[in-house]
Amino acid sequence: MKILMISGAEFTASSGVTIHTLEMAGCLAEAGARVTLVLLGRTWGPGWKGVDVVALPVTRNKYLNGLLRPVLVCVTVLFLALKINYDLVYIRDSIYETPVVLLLRLLGRVVFLEVNTMVAGDLRAKGRAPWKLIVAGWAQRKACISATLVLPVTTTLAGWLAGQGVPAGRVAVVPNGANPYLYRPINRNSVLAELGLDPAKSYLCFAGSLAAWQGGNMIIESFSRLARYYPDTVLLVIGEGQDRNVLEAEVRRLGLPGRVIFTGRLPYHRVPVYMNACTVGIGGGWYGDNPLIERRFRFTGSSALKVYSYLACGLPVIIPDIPDLAGIVRRVSCGLVVEPDHVEDLEAALKVILNNPQHWAEAGAKGRVFIEREATWEHRAALIISLVDQVKRQAGELLQ
Q1: Its pTM surpasses 0.90
Q2: Which long-range contacts does 391-397 make (Cβ < 8 Å, 24+ apart)?
């Protein structure tokens, strides 16, 4: 099977978009597919896990990139699609990829469109101009309706797609996953020694993009309340983002320097080392009294990579009560689900786990079993390949 993948990920960036793209491409290749991956960057040739990489140039000017990216993608993909008869073109959704979806469908190619969010909702939460919301909403809807099959990462997004006019028969939910070979339980004492951390302390982990919709300010506020009664706890904040300066200022205001450690962006392979130093993994999506972020999650649900990664490392999790992921945590009994708008509830959940670490370590082990059983990237790649076979069978039946 020959697969062409298209993503707005940057090859060298350690972001959720890049991780999802590279893990999926690698697992499709390991399953026997020949994968050509078009993304942003400067690397060409054999790539991660033997995937052939075609990197499109990027500039430091985001406005120029916004203008050039759709054109470069269309020209590159047209060349590749005319040269090779791909069984599938797999596109990670963004409004920049809408033109290439339409182009490929005109050429009669099978196009799977992965949908991770409602783009207009994200822009609304960021306070963008109304006209941008209208354009983004139209572009995403047009791409979804045009694709052969749309792959939302949550059932909540699948419901939203139905409201956009995408027939249920052309929607298949493919959630995020984890790499169980890299993200795995590691002896806590060894990682504490490696990282130079104090074995007498309890470390709490928040990993991911430091964006406003993650609710980092609510996590820090709940930790500041907790810190008064648990002097040996430390919060590790792993990642980078536009809100880092704001969060660091809040830590200083609350008098928590030394109690909250910002690691910055870490290489992908280093993140599980830090996670294994921790007692619990904290999810994102704490919206407090922000109605725009609340609305975003009501339409999109959550399939957060960080939570799958915590579970793969055997950590119990505390996550907000947002559709999809909350259902998994309840079903597997691998953590606590908390109201997303109450700081007191998040503080109470942290206390529950700190007061009985052995019980919750056993809950985290259940999360690891869940990942191995049904939520690895290999599971996701196998599902995509089975969907390609199904589409091909249906096309053959129509021709008979």
Answers
A1: yes
A2: 391/110, 391/148, 391/149, 392/87, 392/110
State the angle between helix axes of 305-312 and 357-374 in degrees (0 to 180), rounded to the nearest 10.
110
**Cα–Cα distance between 179 and 381 in angstroms, integer?**
12
Which residues have C-beta within 8 Å of that of residue 186, sequence separation ≥ 6?
A: 272, 273, 276, 313
Summarised one tens digit per residue, pLDDT across range 311-327 is 999 999 999 999 999 99
Note the helical H segments in 211-356: 216-227, 244-253, 271-275, 291-300, 305-312, 325-332, 343-355
Region of residue 353 (left: phi > 0; alpha: psi -120 to 50; beta: else)? alpha
Cα angle 212, 213, 218; round to 5? 75
d(CA 159, CA 121) in angstroms, rounded, equals: 15
Residue range 229-286, pLDDT digits in tens: 999 999 999 999 889 999 999 999 999 989 999 999 998 899 999 999 999 999 999 9
Q: Is the pLDDT of residue 44 over 70?
A: no
Q: Which residues are registered as beta bridge partners of 2?
A: 34
Indicate the CATH number of 2-177+376-399 among 3.30.360.10, 3.20.20.80, 3.30.499.10, 3.40.50.2000.
3.40.50.2000
State the residue for tokens 């052939």. Answer: 52
Q: If we measure between CA atoms, which residue out of 210, 206, 341, 361 comes closest to residue 286?
A: 341
**Residues in a beta bridge with 6:** 38, 91
Would you state the CATH architecture of domain 188-374? 3-Layer(aba) Sandwich (3.40)
Per-residue CA distances from 400 to 87, 393, 395, 396, 397 (Å): 20, 11, 9, 7, 5
Nearest to 185 by CA among 359, 365, 350: 365
Nearest-angstrom CA–CA distance, 378 and 31? 8
Of 290, 296, 238, 289, nearest in space to 263 by CA? 238
